[in-house]
Structures are given as C-alpha cells and as structure tokens.
Amino acid sequence: SVESKLIALAVRGFARLEAKVKELNAAAAHRFSKGFEAHFVIPICWPHEETHLRFLIEKGPFKDEYQLSRVGVLYLYDVCYKLFPDGSDLYDVENPHEVQLTGERGEVLYEKLPPHLRPKEPVPAVIMDLARRFKKTVLVPFHEEIPMAEITVFFRHLSFHYDNLPDLCFLLQSDMYEHIQQNAFDLILRSLSMRVWPPGVHYLPMGHRHLGPVDESGRIASEVRSYCKQKAGLDEKRLSVFGTGKSYLERATDRHPLGAYCQWLELGWELLFDRAFQLPQDDFGSYDYGQNAVSRENSTA
C-alpha cells in the first residue's frame, strides 16, 4: 500500500540520518583527540579594509569571541605595504617570513621579535581585536610581482604551507559577508568549533551569487566575458604570452574594476597551466567572488 511504502521510505531516511550522525560523531571524537585546524586566509589593503574588519567583529561571522579560539588560525596578508615599516626587506617577492601577532589565549607575541621582523606599532586595534578570536594570528607582508588580486595570495598560501597544510583552508575576502549568507556561514563556523565538518566535503564554494543568465544546460554566465573578448584576426595557434609579450584578450566592457584585468588573467592562466588562455574553450563560467573552503586532501591531490 501507499502507507507502507511511505513508512519504508521514512525508515530508510532515518537510518541514513542515524548513520550520518554516527559518522560525524566519530570524526569529531577523532579530531578532539588528534587535533583539527583550519586556516582563514584573508588579504587586506590597509586602511581601506578597516570598515570590513570591524563589521566582521561587531556584527559579522567573527562576533563570537570563542567559537574559533581552538581550531582557527587567521592569516592576514598585507598587500598594500602599510603594516610594516616603509621600505622593509620583508616586502620582497620571495619573502619567507610570516609574523605571528598573537598566540593562544590572545597572548601578544610580535613584541618579542627582532626589530626587523616587527610590524609598525601600534598594530591597528581592530586587527588585534580580530586576532583575539583565533587560536593564533599571523601577519604576512606580501609583494605581488604581477598583481592578480586575492588569487595570488591564495596560491602563495597553499604553496608555502604545502608540506604542513591544515585540515581546511578558508580562502576569503575581508568583505565576505557581502558574498556569503551569514546564517549559512554561522553554521559552517559552528561545525568547525564542534569538529563535525563532514569528512567527505573537500571543496565548498560559499558565495551565494553568480553571473546570469543561466543557459539551457544550467551553466552560469561568464565572468571572463563580462570583462574581456578575444582580439580579432589572431592565428589559431597561441604562443606564450611571456615569450612573445603579446596579449590575446582585450577589454570588452567598462565593468569595474578597470585596468589590466584581461592581461592579469592571461598571465595567471599561463603560470598555472603552462599554455595560453583561449576562448571559448577555457571559459567555465564563474561563481561568486572566491569565498571557498578547501581540504588538505584536495589541495595536495
């Protein structure tokens, strides 16, 4: 009968739910005993990001002072050369230094460092207030040889920590609250604090918007082509952008940010994949603004 089928479906549903609860409880028990850590990687251009950071503390996802104090490590990348002394050697393209501001229980550590490794003092109060919400906080002086916005920071972080990556890396912008639904992000952070992040989730795009319209196949609209188009009259074969100095893309719109976005894309693509970028085959659409979580397993696959 219909009733018996519904009962059977409900029983199977409860069984799957019970199995998932047991899986998460087992994962949490293992993590409490063996350790569990997540990096929160955020590029900041001081002082322009002050308002965003203050919102994260006062009304945003980091208003809870204790939620991430056992599992979260905050990495702030200083990308505008404002948080360390002017002309510091730390702003070198191969800089190996990461300056720990605070340790567990909010202990201030940078004051004990040699003078040449210290940030400017006083460190902005909002940064120190944010730092106290994490297990520890690290400030990284960062110089981009080729400006690529936050993507350079994210790849640098994964590369630099490749042999000692945490369980999860959250790759975020300081205005993340504009791109992630706060209720959803609160649940994500709570799952971290309780160590019940699902073991099978190795990549999570958290942005809740995308470009439209969606086509008949379900693919979202193109981020690349909202900025760029392919130059006319080009040969089919693409030579190295680095080797020839040529560019195969040009601006198609006045969408902000203005500037050399199309050339940044070409340079970054070739650095990553060792070949020139081509439209339309290299256009896969784009989800919202790079608010992503990625596991150690996925980063090293």
Please provide a brief summary of the model.
The chain has eight helices and nine strands.
Characterize the structure shown:
The chain is of the alpha/beta class and 301 residues long. 31% of the residues lie in helices and 16% in strands. The protein is built from 8 helices and 9 strands. Helix 2 packs across helix 3 (125-131). The longest helix has 33 residues, at 2-34. The radius of gyration is 22 Å and the shape is globular. The termini are far apart.
Overall radius of gyration: 22 Å
User: Strand content of the residues, in percent?
Assistant: 15-25%
Strand tally: 9
Strands ordered across the widest β-sheet = 3-4-2-1-5-9-6
**Average pLDDT rating:** 86
Terminal-residue CA separation: 49 Å
Annotation field: number of helices: 8
Unreliable stretches? none
Largest sheet: number of strands, sense, barrel closure:
7 strands, mixed
Task: Give the helix level as a range of percent.
Answer: 25-40%
Pattern of helices and strands:
HEHEEHEHEHEEHEHEH
Structural class: alpha/beta
Descriptive keywords:
8 helices, globular, 31% helix, 9 strands, two-stranded antiparallel sheet, 7-stranded mixed β-sheet, alpha/beta, 301 residues, single chain
SSE map:
Layout: H1 2-34, E1 38-44, H2 50-58, E2 68-78, E3 99-102, H3 125-131, E4 134-141, H4 150-160, E5 168-171, H5 182-193, E6 203-205, E7 228-230, H6 241-244, E8 249-251, H7 261-273, E9 292-295, H8 296-299
Parallel strand pairs: 1-2, 1-5, 2-4
Antiparallel strand pairs: 3-4, 5-9, 6-9, 7-8
Helix pairs in contact: 2-3
